[in-house]
Amino acid sequence: MAATLPATTHIRLERDGPVLRLWLDRPEMRNALSADMVREIQATFDAIRDDANVRVVVIRGAGGTFCAGGDIKNMSTAGAAPPAAGMADELKAGNRRYGAMLLTIDEARQAVIAVVEGAAMGGGIGFASVADITLALDSAQFAMTEVRLGIVPAAISPFVVRRIGLTAARRFAVSGAKLSGIEARDVGFVHEVASDVAALETLLTAEINQILKCAPDAVAETKRLMLRAATNAPMTELLDRAADSFVTAVRGPEGREGTTAFVEKRKPTWVEKI
């Protein structure tokens, strides 16, 4: 069933056939993350959770900046005093919602591409860490800036550690040091860099078209297997799950179509191009 996308104010959604482009759309605030933005992103991924027709999600920032991190003004107000006795701690709940949103993106059936121009600071690095593919301008800047503000990179830390490893994550988390797009590629935040916007668009189109050669259900199950492999699950359990997935795929409609298309020397029916 085709997804009905939510109405949004703080993000902009553009559907282009099998591709959904999600723009962080608070350029006047350098796309700083607000509670409303987090809710809208969560609602969007909830809407497409089971939609195999949405095959790629591209996350970008409007106005030439990816994401400046959390909304510090709102954070300062919310952190001025603890909640009254018996009242919910909205500051804690908001951070937890952001973490849940990142997990939803991480586990999405779609291939997710983050495209970074300008700054990816603080919470903005979370998107780069959960995307399947992250592209950036070589002039982009990445930093875990929280400690420079006296706070901690709470929700993003598990995703950053898994993305670039504990040693690199600790270095950047405790120093708040900035990385260029090239340096972010070298440590593993980013997969490919481009020297200008035109080259970045070319990279993005090539990545999308490569994904659109692949069967959507196979992509979704492959992501699930790889995320499971990144846990501490026993190898025997991982291999049992892998064998089950393999058999299901080979005997399923995509496996039958793909293998038949190979024998008949034609493209499978799912192949698309933008």
Quickly describe the structure:
This protein folds into 2 domains: about 10-210, 2-enoyl-CoA Hydratase, Chain A, domain 1, CATH 3.90.226.10; about 215-265. It is about 45% helix and about 15% strand. The chain has helices at about 35-45, 70-80, 90-105, 125-130, 155-165, 165-175, 180-185, 195-210, 215-230, 235-250, 255-265; strands at about 10-15, 20-25, 55-60, 110-115, 120, 135, 140-145, 180, 190-195.
Give a verbal description of the structure.
- The chain is α/β, with parallel strands linked by helices and 274 residues long.
- It has 2 domains: 11-211, 2-enoyl-CoA Hydratase, Chain A, domain 1; 216-263.
- The protein is built from 11 helices and 9 strands.
- It has a 6-stranded mixed beta sheet, with helices on both faces.
- Strand 2, helix 1 (35-47) and strand 3 form a beta-alpha-beta unit.
- The longest helix is centred in the middle third of the chain and has 17 residues, at 90-106.
- It is globular.
- The model has no long low-confidence stretch (mean pLDDT 94).
CATH structural fold name of the largest domain: 2-enoyl-CoA Hydratase, Chain A, domain 1
Total beta strand runs: 9
Residues in helix, %: 40-55%
CATH class of the largest domain: Alpha Beta
Strand content: 5-15%
Strand order of the largest sheet: 1-2-3-4-6-9
Largest sheet: 6 strands, mixed
SSE sequence, one letter per element = EEHEHHEEHEEHHEHEHHHH
Tally of contiguous helical segments: 11
CATH superfamily membership of the largest domain: 2-enoyl-CoA Hydratase, Chain A, domain 1
Structural class: alpha/beta
